[in-house]
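Data deposition worksheet. Section B asks for the primary sequence of the deposited chain exactly as it was used as input, without tags or linkers unless they were present during the calculation. Section C holds the resulting structure in token form. Section D is free text for depositor observations; keep each observation to a single sentence. Incomplete worksheets are returned to the depositor.
Section A, Depositor: J.P.
Section B:
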Amino acid sequence: MNTSIPRIAGAAALVVLGIWAGAWVYSTRGPALKSHGMPVPAGVASAPNPSDLARADPSVGPDGGYLPGPLPATKIPDRLPQFALADRAGKATPIASFGGKSLIINFWATWCAPCRSEIPLLETLHSEWAGREVSVVGIAVDYRDKVLEFADRFKIGYPLLIGEQDALDAAAAFGVESPVFPFTVFTDRRGEVVALYIGELHRPQAELILSEVQNLNKDLVELPAARRAIAEGLRALAPKNAG
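Section C:
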């Protein structure tokens, strides 16, 4: 079975109808993912096998899903992977074309409720941080026509790239082989991957990560130290966002 995009809409519809309310939808790329993000549906939902949950991995919870928060540094690349996806006009656009800026790369889909919830924050960050050479880039893993209609209706102003399997491949290049939506990647101006946050992003988490991105841009810290500071800061913020 593959994880082709045409199956996304069907599985998402089941969720909307409440047939699978409170249940996990499993991707063929891996086990279910935590409800703080929307899992990539695979058309056929099924309960996990016990072997699916047997992972000696601190980023995986007792139910086999990615825990919300930062993905461990051991799982993410040190530098921005190279890939290209279609922009709103349909032109293939390399992620490298945004080079020279710090990036907030947000993976999302139109049917994902947490994704929709964080769009106003992403708009605000794109506006507030533009003067400090930071840009938001949204990567929509969805039908192209759905994304364009959604972006027009909600007046998304930051750059968007759109893909199906190629966008899932881009997600895997960041170490998220069983993608959960939304997730957000932060890079510095040199293209170093500073942090990868699983689940809906909130302002305190975003500002904490961006402060360390700025420290990297000013050569005040090195990448390992910045990642440690982010992980510690996010752990301190976690109880404030519980529930």
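Section D:
The first helix runs from residue 6 to 17.
Confidence is low (pLDDT under 50) at residues 1-36, 40-67.
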